[in-house]
Amino acid sequence: MLDATVLIIDDDDDILLSARLFLKQQVKQVITCKSPKEINILLSKNEVDIILLDMNYQKGASDGREGLYWLEHILSIDKDYVVILMTAFGNVELAVKAIKKGATDFILKPWENEKLFATLSSASKLRESTRKVKKLEKIHSSLQKDMTRGFEHIVGEAEVIKQLQNTLVKVAPTDANMLILGENGTGKQVFAYEIHRYSQRKNQVFMHVDLGSLNENLFESELFGYAKGAFTDAKEDKPGRFELADGGTIFLDEIGNLTLPLQAKLLSVLQNRTVTRLGESKERKINVRLITATNMPLNEMVAKNTFRQDLLFRINTVELLLPPLCKRGTDILLLANHFMQVFSSKYHKETRSLSSKVEEALLNYAWPGNVRELQHVLERAVIMSDGITISEEDLQLSPQRFANNNAMPDEMALEDMEKMMVQKAIDKHKGNISKAAAELGLTRAALYRRIEKFGI
């Protein structure tokens, strides 16, 4: 059965009855009417996919002029309507004229059922294809508009953010490799995408690879690709992420999680600007802009011989250090209002403001999860809010995480702080890894690695 609604317009009751009896077993819905004057009402009330339109309505008429008139009328409403014309009078010249005016097909009455179904089947595929193309055009249009906007995704007026934006504008047009440092949830991916948007590669692909969630055994096949037969499930050739990003930007997130052997393989690719698929010996040239990010102290890791110094030199031509949210002052309120507007629109809420107590609470909160945590808090608050103003009760902030609390002293080592946050999240969700990972802004795989690392 075709997933389509078919509208049949014919002044012959027998034709309408015959069509309905046959098509009700073949299509999702059949709508019939005797007069084309009902077209506007029917099209306004129904999501019609295919229109079967008779060519003649006046008694004795056979020239098809009425059909051509109503064809033009339908296409003036929406040029993407699929219209199939019907007539009892075979006329090649008329058929050609109808096709030129926008008809999808032309069928003679009385029809053969198999022929009618085949015609409708082709028309249905055309309609679905047209819809997909229109959707892709909208997505493309949206992306094009997005590329012309300013720092839409970077919300903030703090001096440190302005300095980062200035650096971004200077460096983005170059092909310099960039390393973005910062705690989880500070917006490293947002900055990476902004670099891409302001680069010479902005019209090419932006490939995000979360190395933290990538299984070590799949590292080479995912990043460099594989040849058919390279391993048991390699049933066809497949390009890796570097090949797919050719001409564009590749963003390697959580690069600090790579083991030394994987660091060596990545370094070889970056030095030679070539990749070799698993199961092949052929080198393939790649042309990508490299952006990497991590929340881990790479310089300390180099000193401990857990991160290659030559790889660090290769990836950090320019560094961006993103500040934690608690160091951004009133940017917290700017971001909160931004997220409030986003989620009010998403959930069709009328929430438009934050109460003074809410603003005070937001400014005094420690924000261990940074911008990502603020985003989640505001989303929940908008959902829970009953009026136009978000109240303290809507926020549901943890009292243990306010800035004046001693649970997170400034002198605490970054690794100890991370361990404590992981432990708290796991305890809070009673060992539920999925929920704990979501709160921390990590993937399940990344959280498991931290559990193993800290011996939790």
From TrEMBL:
The keyword Transcription regulation applies. The modification 4-aspartylphosphate is found at D54. Residues 154-383 form the Sigma-54 factor interaction domain. The keyword Amino-acid biosynthesis does not apply. Residues 5-124 form the Response regulatory domain. Keywords: ATP-binding, DNA-binding, Nucleotide-binding, Phosphoprotein, Transcription, Transcription regulation. InterPro entries: AAA+_ATPase (IPR003593), AAA_lid_NorR (IPR058031), CheY-like_superfamily (IPR011006), Homeodomain-like_sf (IPR009057), HTH_Fis (IPR002197), P-loop_NTPase (IPR027417), Sig_transdc_resp-reg_receiver (IPR001789), Sigma_54_int (IPR002078). Pfam families: AAA_lid_14, HTH_8, Response_reg, Sigma54_activat. SMART domains: AAA, REC. This is Sigma-54 dependent transcriptional regulator. It comes from Pedobacter punctiformis.
